[in-house]
Amino acid sequence: MKIQSLFIAFLLLLNTSIVLAQVSTDSELFITLKTQDSLFFERGFNQCDLVFLESHLTEDLKFYHDQSGFQDREAFFENTRKYICSGSGAKPIRTVDPTSLAVFPLYDEGEIYGAIQTGVHHFYLREQGVEDVWTSTAKFTHVWVLDNEAWKLSEVLSYDHQPPTNEQSLNTIEQLLVESNVPALGLGIIENGQLTKVEVYGTLDGKRTAPYNTIFKVASLTKPIVALLTLKLIDEGLLELDEPLYKYWVDPDLVDDARHKLLTPEIILSHQTGFPNWRYMTEANVLAFQFDPGTRYQYSGEGFEYLRKAIENKLGKSMEELAEEKLFGPLGMNDTRFWWDAGMDESRYAYNFNENGEMIEVDKYYEANAAANLLTTVEDYGKFAAYVVNGADLSDTLFQNMLAHHVQLRENDFFGLGWEILTGFPNDEYALLHTGKDPGVSTLVIVFPHSKNGYIIFLNGDHTDPVYEEILTHQLYLGEALWNKR
């Protein structure tokens, strides 16, 4: 009896340890493994980046499938190349049910060496010119191991494959895109300060499937990039927040108006210049003050261009050079550029469409604009947004100044340095927001500093409200509250 009691106690202890071993969904390990899952299968399986796939497998990979048997690393890679990534016929696509994920750390003498990840994934068939067809659902168990500080997939169990349980197999988002005449949606999710999900739906041009690394024109989402670049320069002592800019640049239209001496980076980043959005939108088509700088808010692209010219003249470097040095290079934003330079891969560009579903002629820009026209991917901009919500390596004083309410727009709505600041969310949450709008372009980035959550939405069409309403009110953190603030 004593032996039996000890055995039962041991089982209870073991079971308790297993329960406690599952990490919380907001832990760094859970988010890291969720990111690994998203990137591994989106790039390696869905987009067939075989170089990426191969580099994230251990040499002794073991793959167990309840219908197609066992495969070692060589067989798994060869079958993926032959049957998943052959480039002919319908293409299998895998997505994960994010609510199904669980992560269990693996320790050796107190040091983490790997983790077990479980969940449910759905499989679709993608064919050119038609909607994805849902084919099956299965459970998975993955063993990830740390190899020289890099996470690699070591063992895979794919089992309990079942046909779709929902007769409606069309993806809601894909269906909405078609109904709204918006070809593509790019969606990036930030959780606890990390980019955990990048998904691109739809097509580049109504025909070609939009890849994971689709390049979008993001309009005014250029401004947060330039705003942070300016703050980085200020933090390094190369510029001052309240420094008069007339020493380095005076627009010819303003030479005879002494108010140009009042313009500073702070006034420009908080949109208090007194400028119109663009001079060409005024009857006279010249740049002029519509009120005294620093007295109230008025959104202005002209202000950011003014700032660019002053900074370039002071530092003797172009904005492109400074952005590459301070942001794009360090963050690995390799697909981000201000204009259609030689490195722009047009084959991945999401062409823009009007509300009737008609393609808008591409207007290629060949010089930088600090207020608009940035070309980027969801992953690149997601890296930037995650960097911002984690403090952007700014001094705490300057970062808090960026978040400060420099000017009030409406109740619970302010403007800081480069960002609109929305307050009044549940649990005292607040948000940094910026949007972008051009013909055939609708974009949004929002981050919540308290939770360090956020998301990026890129759309290449004009009739976007149904898409925004669906994904905000049903899928995204505080999205319904944001939708209700519109």
UniProtKB/TrEMBL annotation:
Signal peptide range in chain numbering: 1-21
Key word Disulfide bond present: no
Domain Beta-lactamase-related: 172-468
Gene3D superfamilies: 3.10.450.50, DD-peptidase/beta-lactamase superfamily
Entry's Gene Ontology molecular function annotations: hydrolase activity
UniProt keyword terms in alphabetical order: Hydrolase, Signal
SUPFAM superfamilies: beta-lactamase/transpeptidase-like (SSF56601), NTF2-like (SSF54427)
Transmembrane spans: none
Any Pfam family hit: Beta-lactamase
Keyword Kinase: no
Residues of the DUF4440 domain: 41-153
Protein name as annotated: Serine hydrolase
Annotated source species: Phaeocystidibacter marisrubri
